[in-house]
Amino acid sequence: MKNADQPAYPRIDAITGGEGEYGNDHHVHISGGLTKRQYFAAMAMQGILANHLFTNQFDNYNEIAEKCYVQADAMLEEGG
Questions:
Q1: Residues facing 29 on adjacent strands
Q2: What is the pLDDT, as a whole number, of residue 11?
Q3: Contact 43/74 with Cβ under 8 angstroms?
Q4: How many Å apart are CA 50 and CA 43, to the nearest integer?
Q5: How high is the pLDDT of residue 26?
Q6: In sequence order, what are the residues at sequence separation of 6 or more whose Cβ sits closer than 8 angstroms to the Cβ of residue 72?
Q7: Under-70 pLDDT residues of the chain
């Protein structure tokens, strides 16, 4: 799984298998909501939409969303 597809805020749903406290047969089931890429894009969009002067530079909301994912990808490339 690529870093961009990993959950932004993972949570452990269950630990199954294994014997004893430190057995080697444990399986951790992790789930999450947004991926890191989606989370970074959402944060970029929040910043853009909070500033109407910057929002006016775009033709439509689809263009804003596209640019937010470009920013998210750049952050992930830098080690996000």
A1: 14
A2: 74
A3: no
A4: 11
A5: 60
A6: 4, 37, 38, 39, 40, 41, 44
A7: 1, 12-31, 80
Domain extent at residue 35 = 3-77
Using CA atoms, how far apart are residues 26 and 63, in angstroms rounded to an integer? 45
Count of domains observed in the chain:
1
Work out the burial of residue 72: count CB atoms within 10 Å of its CB; fewer than 13 is exposed, 13-18 middle, 19 or more buried: buried
Contact 37, 71 (CB under 8 A): no
For 10-30, what is each residue's pLDDT tens digit?
776 666 665 655 555 566 666
The whole-angstrom separation of Cα 25 and Cα 54 is 53
Residue 30 in tokens: 């992790």
